[in-house]
Amino acid sequence: MTIGDWLTESANWAFLFLAIPTFVASVMVVSSRNVVRAVLYLVIALGGSAALFLMLGAEFVGWTVVLVYIGAVIILFLIGIMITRAPLTKSVDLSHPISAKAPAALLSVLLFGVVAWAVVESFGLETIPLPEEATRTGEIGLSIFTSWVIPFEVVSFVLLAALIGGIVLARKDEPAEVP
């Protein structure tokens, strides 16, 4: 497949329309100096990834990203920021100097290269056709709530315990005055 062939397909343009803002928002998540803005950029990045899943026909995964990550985790982040009264601007004592950022960026690029090489070596560059009939959400829901209901509920209790533990650790009560 040549670049000209790739550009003639409308699905590829839809992919670019979703992928470019998702990539930019992902970069802004890790480079933003404001915590609240980083969380809002994360909403855009997760929304883009959910749209990509929907475009691929993985409707259950796409809507799970919307409901769980955007609907719950982002709200949890914002509540955590409010509870801990985290500083919203750059903190000098938490910022690393450029001498620490440069090796981290180099290592990230190196790891990306290794993962990209492994994917190309494993799967090649040929286009793999998608199956005609994708697994529908009803089948996944039936499987989760019949065969996997106990592990599903155990995971929900583990998440609840982590939420309660995070609130307990973040909360700073003033010592009570003894009359």
SSE arrangement:
Elements: H1 3-8, H2 10-31, H3 35-55, H4 59-84, H5 98-123, H6 137-146, H7 149-170
Helix pairs in contact: 2-3, 3-4, 4-7
Brief synopsis:
The mean pLDDT is 81. The protein has 179 residues and is an all-alpha fold. The relative contact order is 0.07.
Detailed description of the structure:
By secondary structure, this protein is mostly helical. The protein has one domain (3-170): Four Helix Bundle (Hemerythrin (Met), subunit A), CATH 1.20.120. Helices cover 74% and strands 0% of the residues. It has seven helices and no strands. The protein has helices spanning 3-8, 10-31, 35-55, 59-84, 98-123, 137-146, 149-170. Helix 4 runs parallel beside helix 7. The longest helix has 26 residues, at 59-84. The radius of gyration is 22 Å and the shape is extended.
CATH fold-level name: Four Helix Bundle (Hemerythrin (Met), subunit A)
CATH class: Mainly Alpha
Counting H and I runs of at least 4 residues, what is the number of helices? 7
Percent strand:
under 5%
What is the CATH homology-level superfamily? NADH-ubiquinone/plastoquinone oxidoreductase chain 6, subunit NuoJ
What Rg is obtained from the alpha carbons, in whole angstroms?
A: 22 Å
